[in-house]
Amino acid sequence: xxxxxxxxxxxxxxxxxxxxxxxxxxIPETAQExxxxxxxxxxxxxxxxxxxxxxxxEVKKGDKVLFAKWSGTEVKMDGTEYLIMKESEILGIxx
Length: 95
Known about the structure:
Blueprint: E1 9-14, E2 37-43, E3 47-48, E4 54-55, E5 64-67, E6 73-77, E7 80-86, E8 90-94
Antiparallel strand pairs: 1-2, 1-7, 2-5, 3-4, 5-8, 6-7
C-alpha cells in the first residue's frame, strides 16, 4: 500500500527498543514501553500559511526523530504499525 501524508503530517515507524538491560536482564515484551524514537517513512508537502503559500517541512524521509509519549495517531498498514503526526509534535531530529 502506498501512503502520502497531507500538508504538515508525517508517517513514522517506531524504532525497535532493546530487549535487554545493560546488566543483562531480559525485559519481556509485555513490560516494555513503546519507544519514543522513530524513522520518518513519508512526509507531506508542508504547512499551509495564511497567505496561501506552503512552507516546506524541516523533517525529511529517512530522518530519525524523537517525539512525546502520547504523540500521533497509531495506524496499521500491511501488518506494520505506524504513527501519523504533525511536524509540530516532533521534539527533535537525532543526528
